[in-house]
Amino acid sequence: MTATPDLGTPQLASPDLLRSVFRRHAAGVAVITAQGDRGPVGFTATSLSSVSAEPPMLSFGIGTGSSSWPTIAGAGHIGVHILGEHQQELAATFARSGADRFGPPTVWREGPEGVPVLDDVLAWMVCRVAGRVPAGDHRIVLAEVVLGDPAGPGRPLLYHEGRFNGLRD
Questions:
Q1: Taking 90 as the threshold, does the pLDDT of residue 2 lie above it?
Q2: What residues have CB less than 8 Å from 72, skipping those under 6 apart?
Q3: Which residues span the domain enclosing 40?
Q4: Average pLDDT in the 55-63 region?
Q5: Would you list the DSSP string of the chain?
Q6: Please, are residues 46 and 29 in contact by the beta-carbon 8 Å criterion?
Q7: 87 lies in a domain?
């Protein structure tokens, strides 16, 4: 006889339920950047996902109410940066509304296709935006990798239970 797991008290679908469940999901931390008419924009993303190897493609979600969305909505290219555990403050800066994300102490340079590229990250890629798919109050951005560098030193930064963390051995 198979035992039925204790399912607790199920909740109906809601934004709070989704947020509560995904707080339990550990995710890698990335910063997405783009160059706009009014300067560089960027935001912290935990929704980064590999989509295809041939051609090399990835995806990420962005809220349409985000201050970065107007630029991402029209950008031809974006930067994707995988953060290391030493970059908790950088992740927090790019997640904070109203922060000067590209001012000191953030170190960056203009990269290929004019995309802002952050220094000292574990890995970075410049990608050509291939599509933007409506998904509720977000858009899923599909992007094809143009070039990048996977060779930064360190270990990945994770996001779990509302906090940035490193891996434990």
A1: no
A2: 32, 34, 41, 62, 66, 78, 129, 139, 141
A3: 27-101+114-151
A4: 98
A5: -PPPP---------HHHHHHHHHTS-EE-EEEEEEETTEEEEEEES--EEEETTTTEEEEEEETTSTTHHHHHH-SEEEEEEPBGGGHHHHHHHHSTT--TTSTT--EEE-GGG-EEESS-SEEEEEEEEEEEEETTEEEEEEEEEEEE----S-BEEEETTEEEE---
A6: yes
A7: yes
94 belongs to a structural domain: yes
**What are the structure tokens assigned to 31, written together?**
């910063």
pLDDT tens track for 61-92: 999 999 999 999 999 999 999 999 999 999 99
Contact 41, 68 (CB under 8 A): yes
Those residues with Cβ within 8 angstroms of residue 12's Cβ, 6 or more apart along the chain or in another chain: none
Task: Determine the average pLDDT of the residues in 13-25.
Answer: 90
* Whether the predicted model's global pTM rises above the 0.85 cut: yes
- Residue position matching structure tokens 């590229």: 117
pLDDT bucket at 137, cuts 50 / 70 / 90: very high
Residue matched to tokens 């509560």 = 20
Dist. CA 99–CA 167, nearest whole Å: 27
The tokens for 139 are: 């858009």
CATH (domain of 69):
2.30.110.10
